[in-house]
């Protein structure tokens, strides 16, 4: 495990109001009691290779989690912050917010976690999602709780560019309409011509999907 403590995303990503950290730590202790050993602070692919692990053990099972965030694919993305990194900082004790008004781009559970955590820290989050509520991949109860807490969700809105100006992050967006299903089986969002607008935020956090980082695997 490359992080200082075992538990992965259960410990470092899911907010404590959803999953208390002592619950995770008790489960880890139970596993240790069963005889399972944990080596933490070890970055596989850097500190040790897969080849060396395969030489040391009879079998190697990779369960690194989905820590690699998908890019937004928009101009100016370098000024956009990482949702997973924000949650990781909060879960390791930070109470700092990147700004008072924060746009959270995405419609999954990570986006809901980021927005609800920001709210608890005193920020004013706005969730921006390119499809409608029916297509949101986040758990329905998480979306309901976010709305009950007063978090604004702008549906059918697609960010197209982010840029810094006068101490703010300007986010250019376009309104969308739903068309025929795409490869995912959900209605495809289609830009509405002439519906472009710009909104100003103190910070922007992306949470548009995660996937495993397989760079630690040997080539071939």
Structure overview:
By secondary structure, this protein is an alpha/beta fold. The protein is built from 6 helices and 11 strands. The protein has helices at residues 8-12, 21-33, 50-56, 83-91, 109-120, 140-148, and strands spanning 68-69, 81-82, 101-105, 124-128, 152-154, 157-165, 168-181, 187-191, 197-201, 203-206, 210-211. Strand 7 and strand 8 form a beta hairpin. The longest helix is centred in the N-terminal third of the chain and has 13 residues, at 21-33. It is globular.
The oligomeric status of these chains comes to single chain
Largest sheet: 5 strands, parallel
Compressed to H and E, one letter per element, the order equals HHHEEHEHEHEEEEEEE
Which radius of gyration do the C-alpha atoms yield? 20 Å
Percent of residues in helices: 25-40%
Main attributes?
25% strand, 220 residues, 6 helices, 4-stranded antiparallel β-sheet, alpha/beta, globular, 5-stranded parallel β-sheet
Summarize the structure.
The protein is α/β, with parallel strands linked by helices and 220 residues long.
Layout: helices, strands, pairs:
Layout: H1 8-12, H2 21-33, H3 50-56, E1 68-69, E2 81-82, H4 83-91, E3 101-105, H5 109-120, E4 124-128, H6 140-148, E5 152-154, E6 157-165, E7 168-181, E8 187-191, E9 197-201, E10 203-206, E11 210-211
Parallel strand pairs: 2-10, 3-4, 3-10, 4-5
Antiparallel strand pairs: 1-11, 6-7, 7-8, 7-9
């Amino acid at each position: 495990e490359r992080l200082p403590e075992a538990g992965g995303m259960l410990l470092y990503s899911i907010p404590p109001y959803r999953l208390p950290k002592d619950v995770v730590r008790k489960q880890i202790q139970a596993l240790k009691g069963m005889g399972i050993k944990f080596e933490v602070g070890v970055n596989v692919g850097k500190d040790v290779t897969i080849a060396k692990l395969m030489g040391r053990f009879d079998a190697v099972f990779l369960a690194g989690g989905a820590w690699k965030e998908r890019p937004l694919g928009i101009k100016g993305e370098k000024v956009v912050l990482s949702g997973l990194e924000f949650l990781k900082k909060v879960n390791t004790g930070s109470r700092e917010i990147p700004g008072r008004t924060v746009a959270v781009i995405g419609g999954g559970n990570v986006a809901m976690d980021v927005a609800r955590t920001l709210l608890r820290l005193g920020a004013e989050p706005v969730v921006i999602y390119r499809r409608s509520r029916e297509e949101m991949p986040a758990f329905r109860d998480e979306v309901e709780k976010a709305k009950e807490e007063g978090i604004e969700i702008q549906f059918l809105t697609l960010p197209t560019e982010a840029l810094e100006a006068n101490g703010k992050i300007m986010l250019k967006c376009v309104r969308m309409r739903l068309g025929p299903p795409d490869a995912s089986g959900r209605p495809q969002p289609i830009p509405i011509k002439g519906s472009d607008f710009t909104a100003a935020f103190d910070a922007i956090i992306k949470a548009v999907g995660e996937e495993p980082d397989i760079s630690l695997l040997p080539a071939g």
